[in-house]
Amino acid sequence: MNIGEIARRANVSRSTVSYALSGKRPVSEATRRKIQQVVDELGYQPNASARALANGRTGTLGLVFPPAVGHHYTAMQLDFMGSLADAAAAHEHDVLLSTAGLDSVTSLRRLLAERRVDGVILMEVRLADERIEYLLEADFPFVTIGRTDAADRTSWVAVDHRALVTACVDHLADLGHRRIALVNRPERLLRVGYESAQRGLDGFRRAMAARGLTGRHYPCDDDAASGHACVERILADDPATTALVTLNEAALGGLYRGLAGAGRTVPRDFSVAGVALPHWAQMVTPQLTAADVPAAELGRLAVDLLVARLADPAGPSGHHLLTPPVSLRGSTGPAPLPLSS
Amino acid sequence: MNIGEIARRANVSRSTVSYALSGKRPVSEATRRKIQQVVDELGYQPNASARALANGRTGTLGLVFPPAVGHHYTAMQLDFMGSLADAAAAHEHDVLLSTAGLDSVTSLRRLLAERRVDGVILMEVRLADERIEYLLEADFPFVTIGRTDAADRTSWVAVDHRALVTACVDHLADLGHRRIALVNRPERLLRVGYESAQRGLDGFRRAMAARGLTGRHYPCDDDAASGHACVERILADDPATTALVTLNEAALGGLYRGLAGAGRTVPRDFSVAGVALPHWAQMVTPQLTAADVPAAELGRLAVDLLVARLADPAGPSGHHLLTPPVSLRGSTGPAPLPLSS
DNA sequence: TTGAAAGCGGTACCAC
DNA sequence: GTGGTACCGCTTTCAA
């Protein structure tokens, strides 16, 4: 079933079929209808490879994300991935998944060289990300999820982790908390300059300084057991700590249990705030007061930006910096009165 | 940068370059090295569209899943999706995402007609799924996640929800529980014959009957609030209920809060068991005793089956029915002594 | 308003 | 062991 077959059955040339379907050249109403009839009858769809080869466009967007070696994907990443396909479909594009190491451009290079996609969306970026230099160099359309050091030269969509952590700290400070800990993503990610972790940390330091508060920073692996251990360290390092802010959603269950194990009741004795998906925030009891990451919206905006860029590669780069409000749930409350010591 | 350019620079014909790279015809060591050198120098990769057009293979697997209209993807679905890309990469394949309505073959038809993929993986199947008839009819390679009514004629990977729910019921019965509720996926999914929900329900009924126990069944929407409401209904319908089994991971937080709100302490007064991702089970406190769904393994096995099918379309269909053990965590305990009434 | 034909960049058959 | 070339299915220029 190809365009030649359609042409034959409609008694026209192949080019006429092509034009009738694309509308790039006027076709008489009569022939157009005849062609459409044959097409419907046979359920004809142009072969994507042939079309891509001929006009240089694949109609496919690449989604580049790190392989889940050893660890799971976070709910945030995954929810985002899901939303992307829907958004792309709305623009008549498909999404191709591509796993690529956080620190490597090789698989990215392959993706571009093979011309499988028209543009890419980069998840999990580092502040200084070599893949971005590579893409700029190659003049290949892309959008990053996260705001990198090259933000002024690129298109990106990001959650403002600095502002969100600041909002959490302010909320806790307003409640009277003076000693607050930050539970961050894993050490490994911080070391490589992982954007959300770095900006979150930055926001924490600034906000704490601005308030004249004492803060400690704890990288934490993405699992419940690490969260549990992390809380124990926090309370050992400074038993007077009365609140924490977490960027690590996977550790959340462990954080709660660690607190319970230390005899701290949330939110009476200890407050917890964070940045998380609403879905995730509602799993724990009491529900987590958190800045709700709008994963689906991030996906939609990223696709919109990329598609715009494909339509006009010379156009200006676009940005969306989202700052969702902190949803007050049950995990924060007034700071407890200090124990007399 | 194309194969002609490589041929020119290496002073050989295009076909020789092609054969040197594919190894489908012997090439003298000298020319092979010369070609490889030019290829490396220029970072040449064959154009995927051209290759697909010429040999009829795209090197791409399609992942068909329902659009997340209104509801989020479940952690299970998403974790699974993530694992697929890695598994496919191991077989040198890419994964193309495609959202397709649960009850429609139209987008599937387009996917096949455009020849974008060599085979598809179908998530979220119904026991009687029209897409399967369509794929069989079209003689198109596919693997389903979930065991349908056509299981004997298809390749599939599934978690044995019947056995898992049975294991949960047996575990609870052994602990002395006599009145057990099943919290299922949403009504809507049950109505359309959603596989895991249907088989889970079937397992529940059989296991309860086999033990001579009293059970009630509760469809529940995929969110915390619905879980909360669901527990209230369970306890209103039969206050003597002392345990529940849940197939609904998204409702879990709400289930716990509903129990707490009714004055039931888990696991002292009430036991909860379920089927969930380990990650998810560890979010709640006490951690959920659950059959751990091995999402990543499901993804890997599905890709293996599909790739095998592509290599030998006439070969036998393969199956993997997984029955992960129930991990005892903290949410189940001996049935409380009945209150005198 | 339509048709013929030259590509797009590979693969693989047929010769030598 | 290597080269020439038809062909995969579509788009688009050129000509009528």
UniProtKB/TrEMBL annotation, chains A, B:
Top-level taxon in the UniProt lineage: Bacteria
Keywords: DNA-binding, Transcription, Transcription regulation
Protein name as catalogued: DNA-binding LacI/PurR family transcriptional regulator
A Pfam family the protein falls into: Peripla_BP_3
Domain HTH lacI-type: 1-55
One Gene Ontology term of the molecular function aspect: transcription cis-regulatory region binding
Organism: Kutzneria kofuensis
Alphabetized InterPro entries for the sequence: HTH_LacI, LacI/GalR-like_sensor, Lambda_DNA-bd_dom_sf, Peripla_BP_I
